[in-house]
Amino acid sequence: MKKQILKIVKIGGKLIENEESLSAFLHDFSQLEGPKILVHGGGKMATELSDRLGFKTNMVDGRRITDADAMDVITMVYAGLINKKIVAKLQGIKSNAVGLCGADGKSIISKKRVIKEIDFGFVGDVEVINTKFISSLLENDIIPVFSAISCSNEGELFNTNADSVAAEIAIAFSENYQTELFFCFEKNGVLKDPLDDASVIDLLDTRTYQNLLNKKIISEGMLPKLHNCFHALEHAVSEVYLGGPNLLQKGAQHTKIIK
Ligand SMILES: Nc1ncnc2c1ncn2[C@@H]1O[C@H](COP(=O)(O)OP(=O)(O)O)[C@@H](O)[C@H]1O
Ligand SMILES: CC(=O)N[C@@H](CCC(=O)OP(=O)(O)O)C(=O)O
């Protein structure tokens, strides 16, 4: 039997800040047919608030070193301000949504990220997605809206890269759905030349990806993003796209990730 399509859409932090572009994006998102899940970042806003509070931000390979102060800031910014704003805007355009972090309904369980030479602090890698709980929302036509915060089995909140959250949700649902994963960010796709916004690569396969990595053409937040794209394809996600704020519109320029 053919599986139903489930769309998982991730919106990056730089697109969230502008009210107009956020509203336009949410309008496109609400028009998508069938079950859908939204995951949002917010890294830029968290960094700005940290600056205002006098806390230094330290990113390593696109991931935030998250000490106790940073964890407080990101909980307020991701699970609070941004998440509630998005859910309210969706309600305003008659799309029923519920805002979640991984602790809610035990929806995203993670374990502290352990990398020998780097202590990331309160950063978690996803271990379990509670598809049963999330499905109960989808079955009731409620759109789950996830922030980039997960929860350990011991009840600790962890910061988890939003691209990883989206990819892990897509992977977990691939058993029961045909999953399509969309990453919306500042650029119209992966650039062959990071300084030339017109150099979007239409189709990106593993070989070209390795080539770009070797030449250091992929950097910062693009590192976890593309790692997650290929990780998702390797784990039964059907289709993966990267593009700009208009990605969900028909005919929008994008990069399609292929094996
Ligand atoms: N080859 C590349 N193609 C596109 N963007 C790149 C590339 N290399 C680095 N980048 C940078 O990575 C950014 C995307 O990562 P990030 O800011 O973490 O995304 P998000 O908006 O999803 O949080 C782009 O806006 C761009 O500045
Ligand atoms: C561990 C880690 O790095 N978490 C990310 C989560 C937010 C995020 O991914 O936001 P964008 O999608 O807007 O970059 C962070 O705190 O920046």
From TrEMBL:
A Gene Ontology BP annotation from the UniProt entry: L-arginine biosynthetic process via ornithine
EC number: 2.7.2.8
Catalytic class of the enzyme: transferase
Site (Transition state stabilizer): K10, K225
InterPro entries to which the protein is assigned, alphabetical: AceGlu_kinase-like_sf, AcgluKinase_fam, ArgB, Asp/Glu/Uridylate_kinase
UniProt entry keywords in alphabetical sequence: Amino-acid biosynthesis, Arginine biosynthesis, ATP-binding, Cytoplasm, Kinase, Nucleotide-binding, Transferase
A UniProt-annotated Pfam family: AA_kinase
Biochemical pathway: Amino-acid biosynthesis; L-arginine biosynthesis; N(2)-acetyl-L-ornithine from L-glutamate: step 2/4
Gene Ontology CC terms: cytoplasm
Domain Aspartate/glutamate/uridylate kinase: from-to ranges: 7-242
Compartmental location: Cytoplasm
CDD domains in the record: AAK_NAGK-like (cd04238)
Keyword Hydrolase applies: no
Catalytic activity: N-acetyl-L-glutamate + ATP = N-acetyl-L-glutamyl 5-phosphate + ADP
Claim: Cytoplasm is one of the keywords in the record: yes
Binding site for substrate: G42, G43, R64, N159
Any one Gene Ontology molecular-function term assigned to this protein's record: acetylglutamate kinase activity
PANTHER family: N-ACETYLGLUTAMATE SYNTHASE, N-ACETYLGLUTAMATE SYNTHASE, MITOCHONDRIAL
Role this protein plays: Catalyzes the ATP-dependent phosphorylation of N-acetyl-L-glutamate.
Family: Belongs to the acetylglutamate kinase family. ArgB subfamily.
NCBIfam families reported in the protein's UniProt record: argB
Protein name, UniProt field: Acetylglutamate kinase
Species whose genome carries this gene: Gillisia mitskevichiae
